[in-house]
From TrEMBL:
Protein name stated in the entry: D-alanyl-lipoteichoic acid acyltransferase DltB (MBOAT superfamily)
Keyword Transmembrane recorded: yes
Species in which this protein is naturally found: Dinghuibacter silviterrae
One GO term describing the cellular component: plasma membrane
Gene Ontology BP, a term: alginic acid biosynthetic process
Length: 431
């Protein structure tokens, strides 16, 4: 079930209306658990058994960590981490590592919910989080549908208390959440999926495209992936806010960053802080900084996909983060990330190399972006609207009920008339 589908809209309305009809928090938790299971099973039904098994393992491991001392605590933590990492290896990295496992379809969102589960047991081990005694609450921590398959990757200290607490109906929460969802739908179906047609055309016709077309499509992909992923997060954060639950922000105007290091404090914040807290700092942080930065970025690249393109993408980001600690300016940083996105988008190293070579060959080629000139011009206008209004929607559009109604109505019309409704999967679902 994709967020950009009619099925999800019906699902969201049924779950939300049922949620506020229930007067006991325990019943609400059970409702959201059933909703999370159903949401996950709409992709590959039997994979819920794998996710359920991991929930049981991590729940029991955390209880044992809380009760044990010394070596035993460390052993339970190791067992929990090994189970989660082992799951990733079998389903995601077996072919990449040439391990003798049969090819298996990657469970959707596996990298996200395994990292969220590991953050729980690690925080319990560090003494920053009490082991959750209620299995249903912990299960919901993993199965909460607004952020189940593509984040944000939450921390237990932030999400668990909210899941336990009974939330009264508040119109301000509903208004804010719905406005955020409208904004996310706009970014996904109007901007991301429209730009995706132009980007796909350039990669499919790589050897006939001129340098200017390839460069323009690379720029468009920078905005496509931002609109796609941040749009998903907007919808998920909004759906949670309607129920009075706050999820962490995952983006902070990343393309205004003045350096690569600053970019990674603004892009996919929940993942970058996860690697900071659970990889970079435990490795020693600023002690042997260069080594630790490169290890962290290489692992971040590998987290995104079992392909050398992602490893190279992460490694180059790490190298630029080390070389460019000082501000190099917003435009240069944006151009650097744009060229690196080529490795992220390409199917392999060879295609990425051919794409970049095509840009810097300064060749002419067949015209066309897969969009007509009006659609292409409209795309740039929509990008400008998105960037200009990105952090102004909350203060401006929900200040009054009248403004909210106008915003909701205009977004509905824009999505209806300008949206691309082919239910394209969100880019980060593949991770």
């Amino acid at each position: 079930m994709l967020f950009n589908s009619l099925q999800f809209l019906v699902f969201f309305m049924v779950v939300t209306l049922s949620y506020y009809q229930l007067t006991r928090q325990k019943t609400r938790i059970l409702l959201l658990l059933v909703a999370g299971c159903y949401f996950y099973m709409t992709f590959v039904p039997w994979y819920i058994l794998i996710l359920g098994g991991m929930i049981v393992i991590d729940f029991l491991a955390a209880l044992q960590i809380g009760r044990s001392r010394g070596y035993t605590r460390r052993a339970w933590l190791t067992a929990s981490i090994a189970a989660n990492v082992g799951l990733l290896v079998v389903f995601k990295y077996a072919h990449f590592l040439h391990l003798p496992f049969p090819y298996l379809i990657l469970p959707i969102g596996l990298s996200f919910h395994t990292f969220q589960a590991m953050s729980y047991t690690i925080e319990v081990y560090r003494g920053r989080q009490e082991p959750e005694q209620d299995f249903s609450v912990y299960a919901l921590y993993v199965l909460f549908y607004p952020q189940l398959v593509a984040g944000p990757i939450e921390r237990p200290q932030h999400l668990l208390p909210q899941l336990r607490e009974y939330r009264e109906y508040r119109w301000d929460n509903v208004k804010e959440g719905l406005a955020r969802m409208f904004w996310g739908f706009f970014k996904k179906v109007v901007i991301a999926d429209r730009l995706g047609m132009a980007v796909d055309y350039s990669y499919d016709h790589l050897h006939t495209q001129g340098s200017l077309h390839l460069f323009t499509s690379a720029l468009l992909y920078s905005f496509q992936i931002y609109a796609d992923f941040s749009g998903y997060c907007d919808i998920g954060i909004g759906a949670a806010r309607v129920m009075g639950i706050g999820l962490m922000e995952n983006f902070d105007e990343p393309y205004t960053a003045g350096s690569i290091a600053s970019f990674w404090t603004r892009w996919h914040i929940s993942l970058s802080t996860w690697f900071r807290d659970y990889v970079y700092i435990p490795l020693g942080g600023k002690h042997q900084r260069k080594r630790n930065v490169m290890i962290t970025f290489l692992l971040s690249g590998l987290w995104h996909g079992a392909n050398w393109t992602f490893v190279l993408w992460g490694g180059l980001h790490g190298l630029l983060a080390l070389l460019g600690r000082k501000r190099i300016g917003m435009i240069l940083t944006f151009l650097a990330t744009t060229f690196l996105w080529v490795f992220f988008r390409a199917r392999g190293i060879r295609q990425a190399g051919a794409y970049l070579a095509g840009i810097f060959s300064f060749r002419s080629g067949a015209p066309g972006y897969g969009l007509n000139p009006v659609e292409l011009g409209l795309s740039f206008v929509l990008i400008a609207i998105m960037l200009f209004r990105e952090h102004r929607w909350k203060s401006h559009f929900i200040r009054s009920d009248t403004r909210f109604a106008l915003f909701a109505g205009s977004m509905t019309l824009v999505c209806y008339y300008l949206g691309v409704f082919n239910e394209n999967q969100f880019i980060y679902f593949q991770f």
